[in-house]
Amino acid sequence: MDAALNAPVLALEGIRRSFGPVEVLHGVDIALRPGRVHALIGENGAGKSTTMKIMAGYQPASAGRIRVGGQEVVFRSMAEAEALGVVMIHQEFNLAEHLTVEQNLFLGRELKRGFLLDKSAMRRRTRELLARLDRPLDPDLPVSRLSNSDKQMLEIAKALSREARVLIMDEPTAVLTLAETAVLMEQIRALRAAGTAILFTSHKLDEVKALADDLTIMRDGAVVQSGPAAALSPHDMAEAMVGREMSDLFPPRPPLDPAAPLALSVRGLDVPGHASGISFDLRKGEILGVAGLIGAGRTETFEGLCGLRPAHGEVRLFGEAVRFRAPSEALAQGVAYLTEDRKTRGLLLAKGMRENLTLQSLRKFARILVDRRAEERALDRAVREFDIRAGSRSMLVGNLSGGNQQKLLFAKTLLSEPRVLIADEPTRGVDIGAKQQIYALLRELAAQGLAVVVISSEMQELIGLADRILVMRQGRILGEVAGAEMTEEAVVRYAMGVARQVRPGEIRNEETA
Amino acid sequence: MTAPLQPSSPPPAAFAPRRRISMTVVGPILALILLAALGAWLNPNFLSAANITNVLARSAFIGIIAVGMTFVITAGGLDLSVGSMAAFIAGLMIMVMNAALPSLGVGIPIVLLGMGAALLAGLLAGLLNGLLITRLGIEAFIVTLGSMGIYRSLVTWLADGGTLSLDFQLRSFYQPIYYGGIFGVSWPIIVFGLVAVLGEIVMRSTVFGRWCAAIGSNEQVAKYSSVRVARVRLATYVMLGLLVGLAVIMYVPRLGSASASTGLLWELEAIAAVIIGGTLLKGGFGRVWGTVVGVLILSLIGNILNLTDLVSPYLNGAIQGLIIVLAVILQREGKPGA
Fold it and tell me: Could you give the CA distance from residue A345 to residue A340 in angstroms, rounded to a whole number?
């Protein structure tokens, strides 16, 4: 039987949702069928999250019907949705960090024998579930020590243990590396084969193309296109999402000025436990890409460079030897680090845009007292220059969409007027429209004379944007590609450790062991 | 000490309703007005200058300390030791002044010496708390629970289980610091007022105040924004210690003595005042004016119970407790699901 003809296991019909007087969903129809993977795509703010939350019972619909297995239902809570086999996995994991893998799996539904916990039964079930996912985690390991992809697997195992018929995943690959993504895709395919209906969102359209059977594209709170995924190319998808023709995603790459001075020159930088023997040069006006798998030590290397963690080695900034013991010292010299984790390290979600914008450069706005008017003016400028779209000025930053948060983070970092910008995963969780803006911004900054480092797990991004790419693996720089050599293949070869290159002009980086 | 909080279900992007004028702003002021009205209605003496002066002067000690506590809590910390720290500093100050009496005699120099000793002791005590918390990374609750026990025990030991008394002549000379004043306003009230106004300005409009809120809101974000987290935290504890010293300077001339029961439960009253005033216990947001309102609410309750025979004054603690719980419930209403 053709799977597409199966009756939908979960269907939204004419769903509307209003917050106060504002309607944000205007009659959304989506049908999820068993044994099919359904991708939901759209720009940030298109209504994907709200749609998913209504599906999983986190929020009620203002109008419209939800059917599960043909029966009309009303979810008053996520627990009611879960009882019917509809489980949602959030982008921010819903795990108790201090509890173990096993304790998390059974949290709230512990197996009991009389008054006591039935530990042996739980242990047995845990092993079964993890074996089904082909992920033999130690059940006694605290969740805080798991990698992101293992946490994701644990969330999926939790969903499985709840007999999920419908699995809803909000950007499951946003925090995963290529290799981890591949593992996740395999798991999703296995779940599909077992008859689970899966809905996921992603900003990575090649993933959508590779994984999805069905596709729904949303724009401004309505479905603009829905149907089999095979019919559309990633480029078509992007255009449908944005609602206009997409020009080139990446800005043109101007030729590098070979006489440009060295902005940053690093020799033999060690970040204990994470990286060693890191050496590279960065010229003014250049964008240097840093590729590698998660765990390759990219973030840690540059955090060490900026004084965010202990490190030692020779660092020259515009020819001058420097040593940063604290991020404030790096900032004072004009070296700014834009974190990969905007929600827990970049922005104060419970504060307004003004407080966030000026936090890093607050001293510039104060003699004795902070000049609030100057801050407001800076916010006006930032909103204009970075195209930050917020409902109102007093909005809490946690309520901004991911793309706008990221733009605000850029505005905040650049307010310190750095000479060297290190942007770690600058487009993570950001829609394609905002991505294009961020790429253009980075190139423009470089053209204005900033030296830029871009760390990214998205190969295409580095290849499209950077002038040169360093590839890191296990805490070392294994290779460097530039010009016509910058292909996905070449980068992957170094990242996976298949190739190794001694870079020209390299003296100190050679392994002695 | 605070882990960054992940909202369990973040509000939908771009469409969150605008925040209404929240109960957290109006609540404390409303409660204060209601209490004052109730007091005036129950006893005509309540609004007399003498009574109001009395209430304010008694609030001043806790008030001065609570202003400092506001900064500590806003930056995500806590200090349980302030009550016993006050007792210890009071004992120390009395001993220093008594010891210097033969050489310096009664006069302004000896009072200045005592004040200097109190401020220095406060600074050092705050520094000790702060260093243990920021350099060794021990939880503020544990560190200050420990120092609370240490100071209380030290003052008991210094007083040999009894009372340390300031020399009688010295006491008479020093007394005007509590009982005297200018334009009929006594010194403790003036100092409390100054500390409160300065505190409000520092919290609201200086880099330091903004940094405190940022650290309490999310320490990681503050660190990645080049804020010197440990240094700012340390400064909040040092400031609190200094303010405890200042409060003691006002307190010693009142009774001229210190004993094991001096400053008992001050830490809880100060923390309660901070929370009633709308500062978040988990940090990230603080307001000094709220703390002042909180201090006044707590002392008005005691005062009203003393002036009227509606409820036994022995129930003072129970009513204060109710108010604290109520204040926290109202705060939650302002931040659903937090």
Answer: 8
Joined together, the tokens standing for residue A246 give: 């997409």
Contact A408, A150 (CB under 8 A): no
Mean pLDDT of the region A356-363:
92
Chain B CB contacts of A391 below 8 Å: 14-16
Chain B residues touching A45 at Cβ < 8 A: 13-14
Structural tokens at position A118: 């039935």
* Contacts with B222 from chain A: Cβ below 8 Å: 359
Q: Which of A241-250, A344-353, A473-482, B70-79 has the highest mean pLDDT?
A: B70-79
Per-residue model confidence (pLDDT) at position A486: 84
Classified as helix, coil or strand, B81 is coil
What are residue A15's DSSP bridge partners?
A: A28
Mean pLDDT along residues A423-436 = 86
Average pLDDT value for residue range A236-245 = 78
Say whether residue A99 is in contact with chain B using an 8 A CB cutoff: no
Best CA proximity match to A232, nearest among A221, A245, A216: A216
Under an 8 A CB cutoff, do B205 and A22 touch?
no
> What confidence score (pLDDT) does residue A2 get?
47
* Nearest C-alpha in A relative to B216: A348
Q: Is B9–A53 a contact, with Cβ atoms under 8 angstroms apart?
A: yes
A77: burial class by Cβ within 10 Å (0-12, 13-18, 19+)?
A: exposed
Of B7, B224, B226, the CB nearest to A346: B224
Using the Cβ of A395 and the Cβ atoms of chain B, whether some distance falls under 8 Å is answered with yes
Contact A418, A355 (CB under 8 A): no
Q: Per the CB < 8 Å rule, is A308 touching B228? A: no
Selected for mutation to probe chain B from A143, A299, A345, A397 (highest B CB count within 10 Å) is A345
In angstroms, the separation between the Cα of residue B118 and the nearest Cα of chain A is 28
Highest mean pLDDT among A133-137, A281-285, B9-13: A281-285
What is the pLDDT, as a whole number, of residue A247?
63
Partner residue facing B7 (CB), from A53, A345, A398: A398
Contact A49 B12 (CB under 8 A): yes
Which pair of structure tokens corresponds to residue A478? 């294994």
Domains and their CATH numbers in chain A: 3-242 (3.40.50.300), 259-334+418-503 (3.40.50.300), 340-413 (no CATH)
The average pLDDT across A237-250 equals 76
pLDDT band at A137 (very low <50, low <70, confident <90, very high): confident
- Quote the pLDDT of residue B14: 36
Helix A119-132, helix A148-161: angle, nearest 10? 110
User: Taking a C-beta distance cutoff of 8 angstroms, is the pair A236, A40 a contact?
Assistant: no
**Cα separation of A414 and A382, whole Å?**
10
Extents of the domains making up chain B: 59-264+281-286
In the predicted structure, residue A105 carries a pLDDT above the cut 90: no
Angle at A175 between CA A170 and CA A180, to 5 degrees: 105
B21 and chain A in contact, CB less than 8 A: no
CA distance A124 to chain B (A): 30
Q: Are A459 and A291 in contact (CB under 8 A)?
A: yes
Claim: this prediction has a pTM higher than 0.80: no
How many residues are present in chain A? 513
Interface predicted TM-score (ipTM): 0.80
Nearest CB partner across the interface for B13, out of A308, A363, A400: A400
- Chain A touched by B214 (CB under 8 Å): yes
A479 DSSP β-pair partners: A471
C-alpha distance from A511 to closest chain B C-alpha (Å): 32
Residue B82's region, left for phi above 0, alpha for psi from -120 to 50, else beta, is alpha
**Residues A369, B10: C-beta atoms closer than 8 Å:** no
Each residue of A107-119: pLDDT tens digit? 877 888 888 888 8
Q: A473-495: per-residue pLDDT in tens?
A: 888 998 899 888 888 778 877 87
